[in-house]
Amino acid sequence: MEDKDIVQRILRHGETQCYSLIVKRYSGIVFSKAICLMKREDLAQEITQQTFIRAYTNLDSWRGGSLGAWLVSIAAHLSLNELDKLRRERTDFMEESQWKEPEQEDNEEHETLIQILKKSIKELPPDDQKIIRLHYFEEKKTAEIAKLTGLTPSNVLVKLHRIRELLKKKIENERNK
Asked: What span, in angstroms and rounded, lies between the C-alpha atoms of 137 and 29?
């Protein structure tokens, strides 16, 4: 049975059991796309399942081209969104608890670290200082920072990562002096 016929039977006649034919026919290529992007089987399985759910709920928006290509494109979008979400979760430079006053007796060392951090931030190029200020001190989201700086959200995330790595190295170098 052709893809077009299966979709028509589902949409026009309510024969939802026909959807299993689509799942059987295309689950391999959808999973293949998801595993290629996600690099983890558990996440790829989840993306595959979400793809078929999303496709079913939006079946009426399929324009009649290649159903496989349409499903693969849904899987790619879902995968990229999930990867973006995972990257954002990993961008936390320091947990909030690290910014709070230490409960340790050694406040002098803590104060020294703060001074080293402030000095290191002042040594950054002005654009990098702005990104740090917006993200950590003004608590702006990546999309907001992108609008304010003229960068893409992806560029903001990359810059934040590079700045953090640079600051970590500077702090380590200062502490080892």
From this structure: 45
28-59 per-position pLDDT tens digit? 999 999 999 999 999 999 999 999 999 999 99
In order, the DSSP letters of 51-106 are HHHHHHHTGGG--SS-HHHHHHHHHHHHHHHHHHHHHHHHT-SS-HHHHSPP-SS-
> Are 26 and 67 in contact, with CB atoms under 8 Å apart?
yes
In 3D space, the residue among 133, 42, 154 whose CA is nearest the CA of residue 91 turns out to be 154
Beta-carbon contacts of residue 13 (< 8 Å; ≥ 6 apart):
none
Quote the Cα angle for 122-128-130, to 5°.
Answer: 85
Q: How far is it, in rounded angstroms, from Cα 130 to Cα 124?
A: 9
Cβ neighbours of residue 35 closer than 8 Å, sequence gap 6 or more: 41, 44
User: Can you read off the two tokens belonging to residue 47?
Assistant: 């993306």
Using pLDDT thresholds of 50, 70 and 90, give the confidence band for residue 94. very low
Residue 75 burial (10 A CB sphere; 0-12, 13-18, 19+): buried
